[in-house]
Amino acid sequence: MLFCFLYLPPEKSVYSDISGINAITSLELVFVLLGDLNTRVGCEQDYILNDSPKYLPRKYNYIEDNFNSQRLSRDHAINTYGRGLLNMCKEFEIHMLNGRSNLDKPGNFTYMGPNGNSVVDYIIVSTNIFDAFCDFQVLNNDESDHFLITCNIKTNTKPAVRDGDVFTRHRFKWNDKNFFKSLFYTDDTHRELEIVAEQIQEYKIDEAVNGLE
């Protein structure tokens, strides 16, 4: 499972770019997208309504989308980013937790600003792990104009057990078969990270960011 924490600049910003999300969703992995996407999707659904291969040629091997959990939202506006995100959800079978749990049935605003309120912060997960996520909610806070979003994840791991002052907890080990270990343990990756580290030390932040693209 790949967790991706994202920030997308507003769509009218000179830094506007959604290529990062496109790259992530093209990976054949189950993943979780979290963050401030500056994306407004209104009340439109992120899955294909009444999906069926009924009218397609028989030779076309089409797998229908059986996801049908409707979402609610107090934000009825939709922007260009939003339409792109909705299409992406339908194409790659990923879905938003916002507006679907009993703790967020109205689909609460995640941002309050001088020009109004909106839903722009999301947790989005792959269809085949969607049921493992529950209790999504938007929490009130005074520290930021964005509200905290949170959810619970159902797992088969054992909780920490206390024996006096000692806690025993199950741990996951990074092994030789791990995909991400083999991805990061390459000469090319080491070289690129060393260059980025040097650029950061020299306060060449723009060059460092561009080097990661």
Brief synopsis:
The chain is built from five helices and ten strands. The protein is α+β, with helices and mostly antiparallel strands. The protein has two domains: 2-172, Endonuclease/exonuclease/phosphatase (Deoxyribonuclease I, Chain A); 180-213.
Record keyword descriptors for this entry:
5 helices; 4-stranded mixed sheet; 2 domains; two-stranded antiparallel sheet; 213 residues; alpha+beta; Endonuclease/exonuclease/phosphatase domain-containing protein; Endo/exonu/phosph_ase_sf
Global geometry: globular
- Find the structural class using helix and strand composition: alpha+beta
**CATH topology value of the largest domain:** Deoxyribonuclease I, Chain A
CATH homologous superfamily identity of the largest domain: Endonuclease/exonuclease/phosphatase
End-to-end separation in angstroms reads 22 Å
